[in-house]
Amino acid sequence: MAQIKTLAEFITERQHEFTYATGELSQLLTSFRLAAKIVNREVNKAGLAEDILGAQGTDNVQGEAQQKLDVYANDMFIRMLRSQGEVCAVASEENDDIVHFDNGGRYVVAMDPLDGSSNIDVNVSIGTIFSIYRRISTGPKATMEDFMQPGTAQVAAGYIVYGSSTMLVYTTGHGVNGFTLDPSIGTFCLSHPNITTPADGLYYSVNEGNSTDFSQGVKTYIENCKKSKTGARYIGSLVADFHRNLLKGGIYLYPATAKSPKGKLRLLYEANPLAMIVEQAGGSATDGGTRILDLKPSELHQRCPLFIGSKNMVEGVMRTLAS
Ligand code: FDP
After folding, report:
1. pTM exceeds cut of 0.70
2. How do beta strands 203-205 and 231-232 pair?
3. Using one digit for the tens of pLDDT, what is the confidence trace for 143-164?
């Protein structure tokens, strides 16, 4: 029988790669590991449980209707991060402002607790995305300065995809590894060691319903994809589309539109963590002009255009946009 390696064992084995105190990374990732299992349980019964399924009746800071599971997932991740003690503050898609823990923790987390939430009640994959930074401010509480660090300062980033199986994928800057939740034992097991993304992808993922709003460069790139018979895949959950392209090779595009002139996706907890992961896997991420990880944030919920995936495809879109 092949030897099983659990996520907990893997983190312990690889914690020497972490620049800071070795136990800290285990604690940080434990929060996500535990909360992911609990959120996964709720996601799986969303089709049955009427009290969980459906809109909560409030709007989040982006003006989007919050689904009940968004709120549940947000509370769960925050509770787990607070209990582990390494994180002193969280920026979440679901909270207008920074959530402080007042515990002296040395890290801050930016997260989208349940991404692709419009797919919850139709049984389509959704996800969680997280980004971890070392705190740089020195006062009693974390400040905006801690969250305004560029993506290059991330010490770890990851996502969980709740799909036909549930996977946790993360990086600490030493490659990307993926773990699949074995529901029979309730444990994440190493299933995708050392993920590398193909340099030439087979798929492009974009909401073409918005295409009349796209710049001429983006339109031309999409036309070129069609001419070269590149397959189209769009799930409408960033994590799921990204994960698919990471494994198979492809590009995800969310350019500026008339409705979202700065792009729709959020820099801190969508673009940056996925950009760190894709680069670690050999791919690229850009906003169309600048490498995502070099962008200097100025707002907690800042949006940016996103072109992310296989290296040659991202280079191709950059060339087309520049021509
Ligand atoms: P959602 O609004 O359902 O939460 O993060 C926002 C996001 O989903 C991404 O997960 C997804 O890729 C994108 O928006 C889908 O946007 P469109 O419906 O505009 O295509």
Report:
1. yes
2. parallel
3. 999 999 999 999 999 999 999 8
